[in-house]
Amino acid sequence: MVPIFNSFLPLFDGHLDLAWNALSFNRDLTLPLDQLREIDASYPDAPYRGSCLITLEELAKANLKVCVATLLARSGPHAPPAMLRRELDYAHPSIAHGHAYGQFSYYLWLQKSNHVRIINSRRHLDDHWENPNNLGLILSFEGCDPVLDLDDLYLWFELGVRVAGLTHYGVGQYAGGTNTRSGLTPDGFALLREFQELGMILDITHLSDESIEDVFNVYDGPIIASHHNCREIVPGQRQLSNDHIKELIHRDAVIGTALDAWMLYPGWKRNQTDRSVINFDDVIDHMEHICSIAGSSKFVGIGSDLDGGFGVDQTPMGLDRYAHLHLMADVLSLRGFAPGDIHNIFYQNWLNFFQKSLPVL
Q: pLDDT for 301-346, tens place per residue?
């Protein structure tokens, strides 16, 4: 079992790919981080092997009380070969469906072993926040390709999934995603209608601009941007435009700042740019930009995406393991953020949002 949480400021992370890391990269998240890194380094198949930042023990050291934990498997109909990844892409939605069930089963095992608690209601969240003895998980689809039809969506909701993004990179079954110019498909519009019927929270992260426009035109349910930075600072379609940010603020959404270097530093090139060019100030630039548009700190959170397909080679200087996120509190203070603002960013905004948006049950 992971240790009881320590005295660090609480954390609520809007995006972690825990099960995907375990199943697709064969990482035993119950190990201490240094031990996992040593084992991970024996796999030569990716440049970030051996430099991961997350284990359950490390998350406990960081006082992470709740995170949005993903189910991630793609099966887009038109994905170009250059975008296909063997740990992500599958030939048919039924296969992606099977992989998502595997990831869900991993979360069930973690819960049975008392490492985590799956949270699917406001009552669960309130109880867990007041009495945490492990990590709380709110389950989310990072792309709905594993959802085979509308009946299947209802089954996933009954299993406890409470957040869903329609797609990931490329064109998915339900929408155009990152690096595309496609909007929602007919099935995507139908899925959104069922989201509203169920009370499923929509995550717009990874939607193309066209898909975001479609969503804003037809969807008025609860909405977040789980791990999304600002286009004004780092150009590119993967980032939010100022108009996107304004609309999200209007809808009382929370925007989780991502910690992947290429989303923080203009012109970053993987395996070429040295991470010494970025630090926590670059992260806070994005937070500050959203706060300046909103006029407050009430719409910004952390959606770290750490170990989301990258490692220490692609994080800001000073962020060498997950618990180092707490170093950002001092930098926020030096940048003029008041203690209440820092609490908002570290946990309070996400907590408020999910206390309002999860089903009561």
A: 999 999 998 999 999 999 999 999 999 999 999 999 999 999 999 9
Closest CA to 253 of 208, 288, 211, 303: 303
Rounded Cα gap, residues 329 and 335, in angstroms: 10
Burial state string for 292-321 with b = 16 or more CB within 10 A and e = fewer than 16? ebbeebbbbbbbbbbbbbbbbebbbeebeb
Classify 233 as helix, strand or coil: coil
Which of 168, 119, 106 is closest to 142 using CA atoms? 168
| Tens digits of residue pLDDT in 192-204 | 999 999 999 999 9
Q: Yes or no: say if 297 and 345 are a contact pair by the CB < 8 Å rule.
A: yes
- Residue 123 backbone dihedrals phi, psi, to 5 degrees: -60, -45
Name the residue with tokens 């009495």: 131
Would you put residue 114 in left (φ > 0), alpha (ψ -120 to 50) or beta? left
Q: 138: closest CA among 116, 154, 114? A: 116
Q: 12 near 1, Cβ under 8 Å?
A: no
